[in-house]
């Protein structure tokens, strides 16, 4: 049995998932989605957080969540309309609930004054809902057995009689639910009589432990509404059949004639594999006085709604009716597995090289075995990387809150639209992307989106739109942040650069060079310091952190239409496909994902510019020509037979560069070893790797190499610095 601290950590992990579902549901409602499933999902998220917090006696969190869910209950019942002011207050309360969960996770006390202020603002938008709803409500933690629940104050025996028909699905037991605990909580709502139905229990020889055969009928005399009864089954409602049958008032009042009319006996559908000979498996049709709780359309099909087939061996496929099985694994264990994978790749390369140099190399059997080893290594690598791969959706969800807070601080109306949320990338990259994306989003709100009056004067909608997208492209992940604001005022940027002494007053800069000034340390166009900008800390930090991830960032803008920021990153920071080549006697590696083509150019394709610069004419397109050996300081000039092969690589600004190398050895998987921690950052070098012969080879960053070579040429920026 897990300890208290383990259970508490599980609660916080699940709370993060519930908070994500809460915000996603509220945003869906904000965009006009009014389906009951969405509203119910929002309510369930807050209610589940309240239940878990109560189990660990987190009273402040319980109280806030209870008043929060009271407002949501008014919304789902239709007594409140999803008007924009109410939805904004709900989103604000959702943000604060996330802060409270984070504080509880760190063992910190929440700000009671802020809690009360925010929840009162929400209740004010809801018309004062919640004050009377709290009467009679108590919340007591259950024993620390991993099951969360709640109880109400003592109830008098008089009330209405309700027949509760309950049958758990097989998936409920697979998820760890215990029906006895649910029945115990249900009996706490009043006087109860519990009957178990074992009619579908098969003989011992036909018993399948993966199925569910039992159901219960609970006759409950209570003053609670159906809503309170359903809350007992909140955690299991998608994994059970639940039917509430009103049997009338037992306090002596005249019952509703419809409610007391004769009714057919309700039946709960049993799994198709249950040995009920000749019985039809159907879902009961309930009269108007009954309330049926069923799974939403998006939920996995249950045995009563899906056709199940049985294999010749007699094994039932009940597992298909439940959710996909998952396990929670400490990330350190996965990191250790990635490290072992890296060593495996290195030793596979060493073994291959040793065999190639042995006398027996060249036989069909050896070649076939080496090829199979390479394929298995790649499959293992892809499988391990898939474990670390996560969708960018949680990261994108966090940016919605950044937009809301930045919009409030700037006094603007903005919304975030996201695309490609299912795009997967290494978990380490996702974690390190949070700060750069936050800077970029805040810049888009503060510097990109105009004030309402300016947007109206320009014929734009008052509400600004920021679009964030993610996609896989050429073996990399590409993130774009685009706003429909005013675009970059390049004249203002140029003047600020002159005032700060970054460029000479008579410097002639292209639009791209002016845009690049925004990435210089300390550069800011804000006229005054605000909570969002003005201190000169922003885009230079973004480029530094993106470069540290082996990526690159670009910017483009159209005056009056908006600005687009583009981030290109590797999919993983562990293993990559590399092309091994030689330059000036050194063995180097180029990421295959950056290579466009390789060629042996004719002398007529090369054109000199000035004394030292050259370009290569590739099918009418002139590309900068860089000798890798010279650029890295391995040689001063090309000798005979050197630089005869050209590798065309892409740059971060959608351009291309031609790299001159002496020879290409092969293509292989290489393990990425960072240099920053032990050596420092080297212009043009992304990382290092260990080759099959045990030697170390540098992994090039083509974009940074091209930029460092360009910076070595006297430019207007360097003239100003001198």
Plain-language structure description:
The structure is a single chain. 37% of the residues lie in helices and 22% in strands. It is α+β, with helices and mostly antiparallel strands and 722 residues long. The protein has five domains: 4-138, Four Helix Bundle (Hemerythrin (Met), subunit A) (Up-down Bundle); 154-271 and 284-295, 2-Layer Sandwich (Alpha-Beta Plaits), CATH 3.30.70; 331-389, Helix Hairpins (Orthogonal Bundle), CATH 1.10.287; 392-570, Histidine kinase-like ATPase, C-terminal domain (Heat Shock Protein 90, 2-Layer Sandwich), CATH 3.30.565.10; 575-721, SH3 type barrels, CATH 2.30.30. Strands 17-21-22-20-19-18 form a six-stranded mixed sheet. The chain has a five-stranded antiparallel sheet with strand order 4-5-3-6-7. Strands 9-11-12-14-13 form a five-stranded mixed sheet. A hairpin with a 2-residue loop joins strand 11 and strand 12. Helix 4 runs antiparallel to helix 5.
Short description:
This protein is an alpha+beta fold and 722 residues long.
